[in-house]
């Protein structure tokens, strides 16, 4: 199989546009009829045919201006209509089969709910259309369906008319006044519990809020509704952006490929990101619900009102909206733990993507399957790029740029360049060089080095940027990197360089080498670079272990203090990995102890500092990795750390108990701190009672899960006992049981593959449900280091066997799960061979999806 990639350069404006579309659905499980009436207008003077996109459709009828039309061809990818007029009404009737649709793209039926998913190119599975984001039309949607089983029938915009038929069906007509691209269309029909509320906007308009959840789950939806109101208020306060329709609807569905979808006025959510209460959801779940609710809401302006010209511009809406939801979350809880969470995603996942064959710029140049580009690069690195603009422009400048962006582009489909140029116009900062972040892939390396000249008493700090070739781009240029930096003298006082700073604590690296000098201040100065993770780069420096401790004690930037401890852990683990842990002198252990001791009244930073870098993070700064040696080094270090400070850890564990559960920042930090400590203590025999007592006394899911994670670490017998109890309690609640599936799948045990087989046979497991598949297969492939990387290659083979099966029904999910196999670059050659062998098996499958083909063929190239 060879598939041709689409290229960003080849963008052409559409030859036709569609101003209005009237859709008429008659819902039926296996034969849903879709009548579409389009107002089509030619955009240029040529006599081009009208080429509509369409896949998996049964065509029943074509008419132009009410007359049957026959001058067309059906192709693999759509419908070509020849000799059409310059302006006309096109009527197309198609039929689709929602119950057979297991790919969950287009119109599908699952658990009795009809639901659509159109981003990126799913609308073409509903009807023939110009399925591209730069065609914006006004939608009117009529839905007819069975009254008893489908009491709720929703589409975008406002309901304007409804009625009943004599055959037991009813119908409803929806109208969306805002022209939109087809990817924002949505239809949902089913039977739900409904939560309602109202929100009064800053200009006094009343908006009806409606949340639809599975029957019986009403109470678990309350938090999401509150989160929605907080998001609406925040966007008014921070960006002056108000909601624009009379009604805002959110539907939670159990079968969904992604997190959620921002369809205009009708968001569709994976129920995982809506449902949450104290008993069933962890603090992290609450956090995720709030941030995804915010994310989709914020898309109403950054995505819907101003949308993407083409899919290469995806980061225009996603990078920006992720940045906005991050700012929101940070305002709702605590900036430091939020920033650390974001950086973990970058270091664990985005850096890994950059280092792999899937490396791409935040604005990709070439795409075979668009669904493969909903990536941590487009989303999270995209958000880091927006954040750097925020840093450069300042909060006010950034807001002015956003205002200008909406002033220029409201109602349009635009490019990343349009965004940068609006930002540029608002301040006098030149973003030309900066905008290379959009076109260049890869993680820049920044090196900090010092040289002291005693004769002139001058210390030179050299900051070097290096942009290495990536799989997709061999030629690289220097980037424009805003580096937050502070300098500490030996006594902990701050010192400033002679000159060269862009502003206080900010230096711009815009060439290969940037130097800062300190005259007359001696040689003993510690540079603390990458404050607040001011740029998505890998930092290396000549700091000594004792200087990391010095940084922790004296730096102003809280992120840098945390990062100093992480760097020190990384260094310690390296000593174990090299087989010489004795290199870690007593003063360093002691220093770590004191750092923890000194932070006891700050559970937020303490909790984060007691997390040892993940295996995935450790991989990003190493080559030719011996997986098991590195994993064991990490494990042994954690054990020794826990042992060295066990008395202190016990005290911290005891002091961070709260009596009655609330999801609020102080409690969340304290609970996290307690559970992080429990995981560390699980290295030691004394943990058994703590774990069992926490498990049996817990009144919330965070503590329950904390106990289970610690038990998983502690010993298999205890773990199995508690897991069985958990299963009894939650056996009828698959969403909660996903936590249980995930814990089993990440367990370090020699019979893990047999365990996975059992899990697949569990009554609540279903290969058709992406959440279940991610909980079992995804957890194993991404996070079970010992099992996935078993020396005989059995873990790789297991994943491959599974993907060959899953790809037949749900290529999108299969393609996401193949990621760990494609990231073989960091490992030792023998392991690379085993991983590539399995990738070859995938590629040998003649019926492999485009999705998997693109990733696997790149990984093998
Ligand atoms: N646009 C969605 C979001 O980020 C993600 C998504 C993409 C959902 C494709 C479904 C399909 O909010
Ligand atoms: Zn999004």
From TrEMBL:
Domain Peptidase M1 alanyl aminopeptidase Ig-like fold intervals: 442-541
Reactions it catalyzes: Release of an N-terminal amino acid, Xaa-|-Yaa- from a peptide, amide or arylamide. Xaa is preferably Ala, but may be most amino acids including Pro (slow action). When a terminal hydrophobic residue is followed by a prolyl residue, the two may be released as an intact Xaa-Pro dipeptide
GO MF assignments: alanyl aminopeptidase activity; metallopeptidase activity; zinc ion binding
Catalytic activity, EC: 3.4.11.2
Xref: InterPro entries: Aminopeptidase_N-like_N, Aminopeptidase_N-like_N_sf, PepN_Ig-like_sf, Peptidase_M1, Peptidase_M1_dom, Peptidase_M1_pepN, Peptidase_M1_pepN_C, Peptidase_M1_pepN_C_sf
Keywords associated with the record: Aminopeptidase, Hydrolase, Metal-binding, Metalloprotease, Protease, Zinc
GO annotation terms (biological process): proteolysis
KW Metal-binding (keyword) present: yes
Domain Peptidase M1 membrane alanine aminopeptidase positions: 223-436
Domain Peptidase M1 alanyl aminopeptidase C-terminal, residue spans: 549-861
Domain of life, source organism: Bacteria
Residue ranges occupied by any Aminopeptidase N-like N-terminal domain in the UniProt entry: 96-184
Pfam family, one: DUF3458
Cofactor(s) the record lists: Zn(2+)
Protein family (similarity comment): Belongs to the peptidase M1 family.
Annotated NCBIfam families: pepN_proteo (TIGR02414)
Function noted in UniProt: Aminopeptidase N is involved in the degradation of intracellular peptides generated by protein breakdown during normal growth as well as in response to nutrient starvation.
PANTHER family in the record: PUROMYCIN-SENSITIVE AMINOPEPTIDASE
Name of the protein this chain belongs to: Aminopeptidase N
Organism listed in the record: Alteromonas alba
High-level lineage: Bacteria, Pseudomonadati, Pseudomonadota, Gammaproteobacteria, Alteromonadales
